[in-house]
Structure formats: C-alpha cells, structure tokens
Amino acid sequence: MAQQDYDVVVIGAGPAGYVAAIRCAQLGLKTACIDRWRDDAGKERLGGTCLNVGCIPSKALLESSELYEHTRKHLNTHGVHVGDVELDLAGMMARKDRLIGNLTQGIQGLFKANKVTWLKGQGQLQGERKVCFTSHDGKEEILEPEHIILAPGSHSVELPCAPYDGKYIVDSTGALAFDQVPKRLGVIGGGVIGLELGSVWRRLGSEVVVLEAQDRFLSFCDDQVSQEALKIFGKQGLDIRLSARVTDTQVDEDKGTVTVMYEDEQGRHEERFDRLVVCVGRRPATDGLVSGPVELLIDERGAIHVDDHCKTTLPNVYAVGDAVRGPMLAHKGSEEGVMVAERIAGMGTALNYETIPSVIYTLPEIAWVGKTEQELKSKGIPYAVGVFPFAASGRARAMEDTTGFVKLLAHADTDRLLGAHVISSRASELIAECVIALEFGASSEDLGRTVFAHPTLSEAVHEAALATLGHPLHIPPGKKKG
User: Fold this and answer.
1) Catalytic residue at 454?
2) What is the pLDDT of residues 156-188, one digit of tens each?
3) What is the DSSP letter of 450?
4) Alpha-carbon distances, residue 84 vs 71, 92, 179, 224, 344 (angstroms)
5) Segment 344-395, tens digit of pLDDT
6) For residue 415, what are the contacts with CB-CB under 8 A and spacing of at least 6?
7) What is the pTM of this model?
8) Among 93, 183, 214, 301, which is least packed by CB within 10 angstroms?
9) Which segments of the chain belong to CATH 3.50.50.60?
10) In this structure, which topology does domain 169-280 adopt according to CATH?
11) Can you say which residues are annotated as belonging to the binding site for NAD(+)?
C-alpha cells in the first residue's frame, strides 16, 4: 500500500486506540491501526493491556472467585446446601483465557467490518506526518497519513527494592496467571489493582497482606467511603497495613519464598510470603514511541502533553488514553478516542472530564463520580449530604447483602449534584445513573422526584437524593450541610 493511502494511523490497539480507529473508519477516514501486542505463545492480539492482562481477566477472576466463596460460605443462608466445594484453578484460568480470546476475536471482527487495517508490529513517530511501521518479521515501511493518533498505553511501575523475577515477585500480569494458590501472598500497594488482586486470591484461600505506603487508605476516595471500605475488607480477612514503606526484598528459591522488609511508625519489620505482587501504579508506555528530532512534548513521567481536545504539540498529531493526563481508565481512553476521531472529521466534540466514573471491583464494589466531601470542604463550597444505607433497602435484604451505602453531595444553594459515591455489591452499575444526572446538570430534587422501580437497589440513589433535601422516606431524616 502506498505511503499516502491512509487518512489516519493509530499507534496502539488498546481501548483508546482501537476505539479511535473504529470511529475514524465509521466517519469515512481510511484508517490503519498499528499494534505490537503478542501473547506468551507469540500470537498477535488486539485489545492491549486492558483486554489481555488487565481489566477483563481480572474481572473474570473476581467473578469466579466471588462465586467460589459465595458457594462455600453463603448459600446456606438462602436454604441452599451443597456438598464439598472444590477449587479447579486450572479450569478457572482456562475460562479467563477463553473469555480473552473471544473478545480479542470480536475486536478483530469489528476491524474487518469497519474496514480498519490492522498492522501487526511496532509503530514509531518520526515526524509531523511520518510513522515508521516495523512488522514482527523486521520489515519497515514509512507511512505518511494526514493524521496520527498515539495510544501506546501504559505499563506497571517497577520498584527498585522489589524487582520482578517473573515467579516470586510479579506485577499485576503475573498475579493473573498463578498456577496454584499461594499460601501467603504479599501485595505492595493498596490501590485499585492491589485490592482487586488481593481479593481474588484471598477468596481462593491465600492469607493476604497488603502493604500501603500512604497513611490514608484509598486517599483518592471520599473519606466516609474509604473508612467504611477499610473496615469491611479487614473483616473479610485482608490484612491492610498503612504507612508501610517497603525497603528491600529477598528471594529464597530453596525455600520458595520471598522476604519483604518494610518500615512503619512502629519501626522495621520483615514478612515472608510465597508470592509477592507489586501494584504501585502505572506509567505511560512511551519509551521508543518517538525517533529523531521530533518536537513532541513528553514530561518526566513519560506522559505526552496534550490540550483539552488531546492535541499534542505537533500539528495533526493526537494522543489519547493512559499516555496522557487524567485517570488511567479504559472508558476515559475510549471516549478520548471517539472525541479525537470526530474532531479530525470536523465535528466539535468535547469530553467532560468532570463526569468520568471510577470503580474498584472488590466486594463490595466502590464507585464514584464528581467531587468528594473533602474536596468541597477544601474549596469552601457549601454543600448538602444525603446518605442512604443498604441496610434499609428491601432488595438488599432479600439478597442478603446489605453492606454499604449511597452518598450524594449537592450544592447547598443551587441543589445541583456535585458528587456521588457508592459502596455496595452493584456499585459499578448504580453509579451510571449518577453519571447521567451529573452530565445533564441535575439537582438532587430531580432525582428525588424521579420514580424508581421497587424493590431495587437503585432506590438507594433516590433515597439519598431525598436525604440531601432533608426528607428521606425510609430512614430517619437528618440533613447535613458543609
């Protein structure tokens, strides 16, 4: 194919890149998507980290492990009694792998249906309108599209004191592929990924210790939610240790263990584990993305500088997803991909970064959108709080799952919704209606006057809205203003 044939070349086929490519093609732009991903068997796969070793496989194992624990410990509450329950870890992992395979094939089918050209190999930006594509067999081709979208994704941050060895000390990818349940599992990092992976292996039988360097648990969440979550996870058996700064690790292959040295307010400590997972964040995978005298502004973390519409410092070059500012969330990257594609096509699309939801897929799940209470306090914004506990929900009681609550924050003067925070077994689904409400500038009264089906968990959102107004129907009234 000639160099000039493509209107758009996308580098990266994760959630940001493949969605951008599909939307470009839908808008009549001749599009190619370059991706270097290959699995352990050397097979090319679309979907990037999220689909292959991130969001999807972790949710598959979270679901399977939840069913395993629920069957073992909670079905008898419903009058359902089963015999001995056995864990087939190999079967659980095989299911996860089938799911990944089906979804990657699905993206491949979408590329074909939308006439997106999949270029398997490495893409490198070499100028304003120049991309060097190197196939897996080493052949090079220079592409000169009208527009370029950079979506290289991200990779795990490695700690110098806990270098990966692929067996005893692993990143999140390694923790999704254990061939046996570790008797004792250490997790460095008590954020989203650490909690999700720790939850999987705790349910399957591991004794899990989470070492978190910060002195506050889930500091990015609303304080009331994070405090509740810490209590719940502790009762479940996750041993979460705050202010724990890891200083060194030592692997003993003869004993098949790894020793972790860490410091906290009480002094120095040592813990021995069968496996150690390092989950201390991710950084943009921009190493090797640019070659030659290209004036693309990239910061010290590797993040590509972009404006509000994901334009880089180079004309007709955009960047989306984990490689740019903002939360490293698949859905955020996808919507940036859509926005960029539509702007290339001449549309004035924009993305509201204030209404992007976040979710932690533990049990209970934690989900939020908008402002936290501590943010509103720090900015001096007057607000009203409405909290409704699932202990007062008829549907939650029928499910034997009354953990958590819905918390809404509204402006004290205008009643406009400012933030929503949910901790419950279905928080990832319940947050969607709150996202829509914030996106459309709704007030708590708007939600309070909306009819919700009964009995449902979503009624908790309705009741929390009424609580911000001071007159909930199914808990005692009490309006709090900040």
Assistant:
1) yes
2) 999 999 999 999 999 999 999 999 999 999 999
3) S
4) 10, 17, 22, 39, 59
5) 999 999 999 999 999 999 999 999 999 999 999 999 999 999 999 999 999 9
6) 384, 443, 444, 445, 468, 469
7) 0.96
8) 301
9) 3-155+283-351, 169-280
10) FAD/NAD(P)-binding domain (3.50.50)
11) 189-196, 212, 281
